[in-house]
Design goal:
- By secondary structure, the protein is α+β, with helices and mostly antiparallel strands.
- It contains eight helices and nine strands.
- The strands form two sheets. It has a seven-stranded mixed beta sheet with strand order 1-2-3-4-5-6-7, with helices on one face.
- A hairpin with a 2-residue loop joins strand 4 and strand 5.
- Helix 2 crosses helix 3.
């Protein structure tokens, strides 16, 4: 590899980082293509063999299988992930919690409870709110997985026909199939709660769902509703073959489930979000 080749690779890499830091969606997508181009150039120029460039690019598509086989395949999920009252995380760990709470309560939602569940691989915290006149719940969801944590917001309106109308800004591809009764309206992670609430209202209006068609929820039963929806979600994925119950009673991903997660990764990758 010549010095001009090294400068070319460095230049494409720096340009890719610059594009990814812009506010333009189109330029950020070009930045992802720039990373692919950098991988291709490294493989080609370092080995002086053109096919090696394509092999390097393919690593972007197939490296998730290492994580899927070595870690995800071994995850054992409990059959019943019971929701219980849970103390809020420390302010230093989740500094946005109080600001989000104030923003949600400012829109007329009442804070009902703080719930959580945990198992070997992860723990979750949910702060639940309810707005009676709109028959809608809001949830702040914090997920901790090993040394990684993230949060997202969810708005829920349940139809009298069993449909669950959800607007959320979950930041990653879903690792399970949604149950048939779920109707989702996904927003980007940079949206504020007020923007999500406006989007949820517009979503219901767009779907021609009036307040009269939404089920009145007993605030005392919301935790049980969330628990029942989780059970339905697990059962749907057991039926679909994404999950399987092991002889020890735990639930694990099948090979079909690992393929589903990989396809979710590819979908996001193709969209270049």
């Amino acid at each position: 590899m010549t010095s001009s080749d090294a400068l070319l690779i460095l230049g494409v890499l720096v340009l890719s980082f610059a594009l990814r830091s812009t506010g333009s969606i189109l330029l950020r997508k070009l930045g992802v293509l720039g990373f692919l181009a950098t991988s291709f150039l490294i493989g080609w120029k370092v080995t002086d063999w053109l096919p090696m460039g394509f092999i390097f690019v393919s690593f972007w598509l197939f490296w998730p299988w290492y994580e899927l086989i070595t870690r995800v395949r071994k995850i054992a999920m409990p059959v019943e992930k019971t929701l219980r009252h849970k103390a809020a995380p420390h302010r230093e760990f989740f500094p946005a919690l109080e600001d989000l709470t104030g923003e949600i309560e400012g829109e007329g939602f009442a804070h009902l409870d703080d719930l959580g569940r945990e198992w070997d691989e992860a723990q979750q915290f949910f702060r639940i709110f309810h707005k009676v006149d709109e028959r809608t719940q809001a949830v702040i969801c914090l997920v901790e997985q090993q040394n990684f944590a993230f949060y997202y917001l969810r708005l829920i309106s349940r139809g009298t026909d069993g449909a669950i109308w959800t607007t959320w800004n979950y930041p990653f591809s879903l690792n399970l199939k949604l149950a048939p009764e779920w109707r989702t309206n996904r927003e980007s992670g940079d949206k504020t709660f007020i923007q999500l609430l406006d989007s949820h209202r517009e979503y219901l209006e767009r779907m021609d769902i009036s307040a009269a068609e939404l089920r009145e929820s007993d605030p005392e039963q919301l935790a049980e509703q969330l628990q029942a929806e989780q059970r339905a979600q697990i059962q749907h994925n057991l039926t679909a073959g994404i999950l399987a119950k092991a002889p020890d009673g735990a639930i694990r991903y099948t090979w079909r489930g690992l393929l589903f997660i990989w396809c979710q990764f590819l979908r996001d990758f193709v969209r270049l979000n």
